[in-house]
Amino acid sequence: MTYDSGVDETIISSMSPRERVVFLTKRTGVLPCIKLRQKDDYLAYARAMYEGGARVIEITMTTPGALAAIHDIAEAFGDRLFVAAGTVLDAATAREVILAGGRLIVSPVILPEVVEMAHRYGAACYPGAFTATECLQAMRVGADMVKIFPAQLGGPKYMTNLRMVFPDVNLIPSGGSSESNAAEYIRSGACAVSGARTFMNHERIAQEGLDWITRQVRRYIEIVQEAKKNLPPLPGR
User: Lower CB count within 10 Å: N or C terminus of the chain?
Assistant: First the structure.
């Protein structure tokens, strides 16, 4: 599957890598995450997500060999697929990720030094927050998107409450999204959905192979695009 962003490629190519990561996260509406307990063929997982339409994917730093995997995927795909590092907890790790080819830093918490490091090297940063106060803190330190984590605690309607006070913020819920509620998250104010278990059901992968991941990513993109069809074009969507 070739993902059509609906925007002239010359416009996209004129963007900085940081701008393109944010743009493509919002346009595809998904940020699938590779999270494994042992080393595996990460390129194969990345390829499955890419073929499903993902253009930005995440590898958590708790995954064995994550840094090498980020390097290998970035080298293999170039600007066709941007790689993020998740669960980044310090500026030194953020720098290592970017030097390895990562173009997005994702964290479960707000760490100003991590955001500053990402932006210094031209990468995007999605720090984690939950409360309105934390969202404001994330915005103040320059978050490109605010990762609402753990999203399942508030559910889709929680996005509505946050968007009421922060209408311009890019919200991306992480954890708890499913085929039955992904559209509601989008209609409630999220610009995309993220997660690991959503796209990495190991039992289904064992039964159906990596094609299951491709189908899952494609299905979620379809759900998100359909949900966005009749929504007003708000800045944070």
Answer: N
User: Which residue among the candidates 26, 35, 51, 147 is catalytic per the annotation?
Assistant: 147
Give the pLDDT of residue 153. 93
Q: Cα–Cα distance between 225 and 214 in angstroms, integer?
A: 17
Which residues, in sequence order, are CB contacts of 140 under 8 Å at separation 6+? Answer: none
> Of the listed 26, 35, 58, 228, which one is catalytic?
58
Q: Average pLDDT, stretch 159-163?
A: 94
CA 214/CA 157 separation, integer angstroms: 28
Residue 58 falls in the annotated catalytic set:
yes
169 in any annotated domain: no
Look at 1 and 6; give whichever has higher pLDDT. 6
5 vs 88, which has greater pLDDT?
Answer: 88
Domain presence at residue 166: no
Q: In this structure, what CATH number is given to the domain that contains residue 201?
A: 3.20.20.70
Q: Which residues contact 167 (CB under 8 A, 6 or more apart)?
A: 234, 235, 236
Half-sphere exposure of 17 (CA within 13 A, CB side): 23
